[in-house]
Amino acid sequence: MKAAKVNGRPGFHLKLIVRPETYTRVRIGLGKMSAAGLPNTDKRALAAGDQPGYLRLMLGEDATLVVQQAKELEFKVAYGDKNDLKAGEEVDVVSAWGGQGYWHVFGMFDGPVNQNDRTSVIKLP
Predict the structure, then answer these.
(1) How crowded is residue 96: how many other Cβ atoms within 10 Å of its Cβ?
(2) DSSP string covering 76-108, please?
(3) 68, 42 Cβ separation under 8 angstroms
(4) Residue 120 phi, psi (nearest 5)
(5) Residue 103: closest CA among 16, 38, 27, 33
(6) Can you give the C-alpha Rg of the chain in angstroms?
(7) pLDDT of the chain, 125 residues: tens digit per residue
(8) pTM for the full predicted model
(9) Domain residues for 111?
(10) How many separate domains does the chain show?
């Protein structure tokens, strides 16, 4: 991740490598690191963006992945462009795999299985 101008505005570029084990569809988002106080408690739906409140920004979805083949995804984000992100903040990079009513979630700081794991927490440049 690096700071960058995006359409003339301050922001950042984020590159990720995804490697699907079994699912060929993934959604990537930046989360707010806490699901406390949200009316919906289905953390898998929150992480996938099916329910509002946890994701501060849905970066994208890719349904063209090939099992056991790595793929680089790149996202360009401008601060304040359809998001409330600011430089210096910490967010969790959340991936939700699968779909059709059930999502396998990774990286969610306040997740359905793991909590307080900083492995996927980043500080915005």
Answers:
(1) 28
(2) EEETTSSS---TT-EEEEEEEEEETTEEEEES-
(3) no
(4) -110, 15
(5) 27
(6) 14
(7) 999 999 999 999 999 999 999 999 999 999 999 999 998 889 999 999 999 999 999 999 999 999 999 999 999 999 999 999 999 999 999 999 997 778 999 999 999 988 999 999 999 99
(8) 0.94
(9) 2-123
(10) 1
